[in-house]
User: What shape does this take?
Amino acid sequence: MHCFPKFESMDIQEISSAQKAFFKTHKTKSIKFRKMYLEKLKEIITQNEELLYKAIEKDFGKSRFDTFTTELSFVLKDIDYYIKNLKTLSKPQKVSTNLANQIGKSLIYPEPLGCILVIGAWNYPYQLSLSPLVAALAAGNCCILKPSEIAENTMEAMAKIINENFPSEYVYVYKGGINETTDLLKLRFDKIFFTGSTKIGKIVYKAAAENLTPVTLELGGKSPVIITKEANLEVSAKRIVWGKFLNAGQTCVAPDYLVIEESVKEQFLEMLRKYIKEFKYEPGSEQYTRIINQRNFQRLIQLIQKDKVYFGGNYSEEKLYIEPTILTDIEWKDPVMEEEIFGPILPVISFTHYNQMINTITELEKPLAAYLFTNNPEEKEIFKQKISFGGGCINDVVMHLSNDHLPFGGVGNSGIGHYHGKYGFETFSHQKSILERVTWGEPNIKYPPYSDKKLKW
Ligand code: NAD
Assistant: This one.
């Protein structure tokens, strides 16, 4: 039987009730109030950067450069975006009014949902906890944030800086693991925003259904990267090595496996090897992150089929490092192709018929991301038309999520809903429709008594 650590002593039920009461004061609806606290969040992140860097370094050895570029800068950029655009995003939108409702006007009012629960994942602990929080607050909600206990130091750091600076009836960071999350899920929220695995996403979805609570589920999946002989191989190799081994492969949108046209395979594998060395992606180097814990480490090393290692394959159990590893001659039915890898192991499958390979991918669960490297317009078109996936790139990997004009989220098994930029604001808002009529000049057509004459009108 598992023994789960006890994290929190504050009564979460009390905090949840206090947030409900606070929301009813309507204070969070004022633009001034929202801006003030978004500014405050920016200030405390900036002032505590050192604390945040140290915590993540302790959790899994993530460098300051990676932490800033893939986590903190994202959150700070989100805050700036919402501060700048809050007035426009919150403004009622006037739409046209149909003939039957003349004379009248029709408006859509974005309204905060109320009290939000955000449940974060450990792999980008700041970005995946704080970015949804920022969007929830920008939209005028109260929020309880439950970061992942797997990255314990970052969870502690976020709880410290937020709980010391925000009133708990508005925002509260609740520290906890499975027990605490299970307790939270028994409470009634106006929205649950969850980032994590498909398996736990289903638990969250079931619990939310009890209260008809809407959810956004940001989940994972096996995201393919396809390279054809018409790709710029050098650029493709460089971008793929970066996107796959960034954060030691512990990235939800990292290419999970690589599918390459047989005729260019050998040449391409050599380029992958070259860039892994050039980027100094090696255990112990500043660029290279550790595996988060023993459990994931043990799961990952089981996937390294020794006779298929083209590059890497070494690891240190004591230091929780796994070398960037490329497995070649992989087949669709191999164990490494069963579940999302979520680590620095890249299986390579080759193909000879593009359409056939695309059809095989469409038989699998819909992934969070998909990537294609080619300069052939027809291949691009087939990729876009036939494969269903959350979002992706042509001739790049991962970077689509850095463009806030694109909604970010999954489809099917990889998630429900999306966020980033204006989509984040909408995710935490209800679109309230109001038709306002004048009280004069109304035709009698809709009122009884009915007649054939009225029907023909
Ligand atoms: P996870 O599903 O194990 O945990 C996520 C959260 O759920 C944590 O806060 C955890 O405390 C909580 N949790 C765990 N077990 C629970 C239970 N039985 N009941 C209630 N709550 C529980 O996921 P993880 O290991 O933190 O993250 C890895 C997964 O997340 C991967 O599949 C990855 O692809 C996915 N992910 C998706 C995105 C995205 O934006 N779509 C981002 C990062 C990670």
